Amino acid sequence: MSPESEFTFTTTKTTTTIQTTTLPPTLESLSNTLADTFVHYLNYLGKVPGGDWLLWYIKASYKDDPVRSLFELALFLFGVYYFFNSRRKENKSDLVTLSKREIDELIDEWNPVEIVDEVTPIEKWQMKSLPVVKGHNGARIQLENLNKAKDVVNLASNDFLNLNESEELKTIAKSVINYSGVGACSAPNFYGTQDFHVRLEEDLTDYLHGENSILYGQDFVTPSSVLPAFVKRGDVCVVDTGVNIAIQKALVVSRCEIEWYHHNDMKHLENLLKEITPTLDKQKPLKRRFIVTEAIFSNGGSLLDLPKVVELRKKYKYRLFLDESNSIGVLGNTGRGITEYFGIPRSDVSITVGTLANSLASSGGFCVGASPMVHHQRLSSLAYVFSASLPPYCAKVACQAIKEIKKLNSNGKSILISKLHENTKFLHEGISSAIKDSNFVEVISNINSPVIQLSLKGPFREAINLPEFYGNTSFLTTARRSKYNNPFDEKYNLENFILQKIVDQVLASSNILISRSKNLLVHEHLPVAKPRLMVYANTGVSIEDLSLLIRTINGAVNTVCGSINRESSLDTLTSEMKVY
Amino acid sequence: MLLKMPDAPAEDRPPEEVAELEFGKLTSTDYLYVSQHPAGQPYPNPVEDDPPIFIYIVTYLSYLILIIIGHIRDFFGKIFRPEAYEHLVEKDGYAPWSDGFESFYERRLKERIDDCFARPIHGAPGRYIKCYQRIKMGINKYQYTGGSDECLNLSSYNYLGFGQSKGTCTEAASEIVDSYGTSGCSPRDIVGTTDLHQQCERLIADFVGQDDAILVSQGYGTNAFIFECIADSKTLVLSDALNHASTRFGVRVSGASVKVFEHNDMKSLEKVIRNAIAQGQPKSHRPWSKIIIAVEGLYSMEGDMCNLVEIIRLKEKYKCYLFVDEAHSIGALGPNGRGISDYFGVDPKKIDVLMGTLTKSFGATGGYISGSQKLMDRVRVDYATNVHGESVPPPVLAQIISSMSIIKGDLNPGEGALRLQRLAFNSRYFRSGLKKLGFIIYGADDSPVIPLLVFLPAKMPAVSRKLYDMGIALVIAAYPATPIVSGRVRLCLSSALTKEDLDYVLEKFSEIGDLIYLKFGSGIPGQTKKMNIQEALAGNVEMCKQPNFGLVKA
């Protein structure tokens, strides 16, 4: 580059000299002077390293064909112009030139908004309604607020197998804390990988029949770190429209091309793949392409038709990214997740992500799959590289939880898991039959979902003028996130409040704590379907307590919803919110 | 030889000896110092030595050679050993997981020094760290001998030495397992909040001097989703060029616009602010709805602090908001360990969003966000992690509560102050020693993070392996974590280390420095004399406590 830039320098200098110093009388003398000066300065090139060669080239090219020289010069000048122009091109044309005084004025005038909006009176109930557990979290808890009754049955915990109360896990946890301390104090790639982490990775690999696995410090960041490690700009994701917010964020961050298929609609998925795959096949080099979905959906609790998805993904050569947060330690005879449930080998699922915080009574997330895939994450997955490791005791506790789950009964089923299945089935069927004549609520989750989800019925919602869904659809229609967050929606707030009242009513009438979906409308990129009541199955809760819920839930729903029938009573609800 | 990692060798030493190996006893009360910025004085921009120009040239050449050889190996490898490249090329109609270009750096540069990374350890990462002995057997495969090496630990973020398997905090954490269990069980907003969480949050809020705080189970996760609550597409975030990946991720998720200013350059920041306010949003030129300045208290790769006083002046002058990530500074800086505002003697309430992690100084894990009541109420209502992420497990809470109470002086009075002052002394003592020996060191004098520049890629594994053999564990970092020409060794000091440990490390560093030519520096910047190890250690205890280590410019 250096000899060439020298060259430009000289030519431009030439022109300026001419213009400022001599005023040529005729065109001829002008061109003569110009040529002379040009040659004069050109000869300086000889003194620059490599200039000899350049000079020779110019001379030779001029001798052969002067027009070519002219053309080359033009090309070169254009290159230089382009180089300097493209550098700061960004926004340059868009900027306004302002004097210092004008800028000062603008700064004086500028009136920024507050960093956050104050929580309004009709939102405050959301904070006040949060249950605070006093002491040990488990199947039976004491609450500090809400209901001060001695014992509350906890049907809101993600600890489906009630392993948080297991003595074996506690003993293990204490022994590790007394050996390794609490924190890992370092990132996994430096000195944060302890023997316990490696063991858990081995155990997870073995338990889930994968090739390799990797641990994350938190479950919520796992999808949004794993997916963008593989899916880059231009890659293609075919995504279920019902995915949870963690996956939505992952998609937003990866900036991939997104195609949506209707929630759990295999026909639509097939048509879509049929339609888009031929064009994708022609691309060189081949883009990475994924089908992204969940095993048991957090939003709504439907079950994925895995055999069909695997068939389609093989036929059209897609990889499958599967979030098994709600299904590992839940589905299948030994809790190995949806693959065991359908009898499909784990290798058919390309990337499995899950959480250690639900059934495994620990904390953190993980990803299981093929070795090169897992290995790639160790340097390319942000939440793995730039974060401290999981506390070693958490890793060991999860190992022990897997051991507990692996304890089999005489039928070859896991004792814990079959108890969970019993409870889930009992709850699901019991609640379904208890509310089968209800005008107000219906069960929408799959019978295998450990979280029984109920939503308000369509006619009732119509009667009180609630919309079909909340939020905007721009992510679905354009595959780009909306530029603006969803604004606060009073109706969404209201529907949630109705559900909260049911939760409170159940707690008051039967001392059982259930929960409701708490999707944050403002952060959701997909349209939010109806808010749901959530009943979390738990092996630590007795059949009698479950029966009590089944007996009382319809009554509680009727008490709350029975009084809501006209729009005017919605105003009453709004004023209730303010004094909650 | 074992292919799988063996079980940790049994610990049969008496508990007192183990405790001493995790946290060394203070050998003299001279070895204490209070970390505080002299009030009213401007924050000095650290003077940094430059190496001879040929070091830069050789560094570039080294990378060039590495890259060329890497490509040659790839070229022939693809022809002669296609099976090794299977996962990098299209196969059966599937695109590769990552193409050869994306993973080139990892395969051809990092792989050569892979043994210096991710050394598996066992036991508490205290004063000593126990690394498994392993032998590299081909790509990404190791064999284990079954034994482990005990190394002095200059690698963990164990600033105050709470990485212990014995002591008050560990007892508290272990006891809480009985009364609270092992897991958080549920997201915070469902049923994952216990009285212990609330107690811990109140304690943190009080410690950092804010109205309220929210705990999150991971530091990275804290930043990753907090910007959603405070920024939207009409917000401009002014981000320091060297901000942590989690902050950058968080801003990207929030959809806010970002402008980067040069690292710690207040002139650049002011210029960017003025331009941003004047120009407004791109295209529409409407004014930004708000501007948030995002900086870190202590930069973990550079070892320098943000110029908090000046940033607060700018933020107030231009009506911006300030986000400070105290991941490394909380607990490690300030006379009371309360972070960067404590160090500079600034009212913490002037910082709008104060984020920090509990992984480092507190020996726990997780992060927190704190701020005014109004802000925290909004975050409580709107924070996605509270609804979808797990809550902090009880033993971690117990570790945070006990370690923070010790630092505050409520628990084991005197111990907290001692830990803080030992850390401050160790940081200054070690830094001044290294500087006098002629190493090029970045960062502020009081920072417990000490980056030692080695520049050449080949010298990084050399330092790491040689010192590992001498029983010292440290972290090396190179491109892409740092600029290409400034590969470095990062040393994290800890109160668990004794002055004698540091003398030993300085001695060994001096040897290695001579052996592989690392002493490019001029001693103390401005002074041309480099010292040998005896000169450097003589009187270092007194000298390190003076401004600029008692060495004025010649």
UniProtKB/TrEMBL annotation, chain A:
Transmembrane feature ranges: none
GO BP terms in the entry: ceramide biosynthetic process; sphingosine biosynthetic process
Cofactor(s) the record lists: pyridoxal 5'-phosphate
Occurrences of domain Aminotransferase class I/classII large (ranges): 150-441
Family: Belongs to the class-II pyridoxal-phosphate-dependent aminotransferase family.
Name under which the protein is recorded: serine C-palmitoyltransferase
SUPFAM superfamilies (alphabetical): PLP-dependent transferases
Cellular component, GO annotation: endoplasmic reticulum; membrane
Pfam families, sorted: Aminotran_1_2
InterPro entries, sorted: Aminotransferase_I/II_large, AON_synthase_class-II, PyrdxlP-dep_Trfase, PyrdxlP-dep_Trfase_major, PyrdxlP-dep_Trfase_small
Gene3D superfamilies: Aspartate Aminotransferase, domain 1, Type I PLP-dependent aspartate aminotransferase-like (Major domain)
Enzyme Commission number(s): 2.3.1.50
Keyword Kinase belongs to the record: no
Keyword Lipid metabolism attached: yes
Molecular functions per Gene Ontology: pyridoxal phosphate binding; serine C-palmitoyltransferase activity
Pathway: Sphingolipid metabolism; Lipid metabolism; sphingolipid metabolism
Keywords: Acyltransferase, Lipid metabolism, Pyridoxal phosphate, Sphingolipid metabolism, Transferase
From TrEMBL, chain B:
Record key words, sorted: Membrane, Transferase, Transmembrane, Transmembrane helix
Cofactors named for this entry: pyridoxal 5'-phosphate
GO cellular component, one term: serine palmitoyltransferase complex
GO molecular function, one term: pyridoxal phosphate binding
Domain Aminotransferase class I/classII large: 150-508
Transmembrane segments: 53-72
GO terms under biological process: ceramide biosynthetic process; sphingosine biosynthetic process
SUPFAM superfamilies recorded: PLP-dependent transferases
Name the UniProt record assigns to this protein: Aminotransferase class I/classII large domain-containing protein
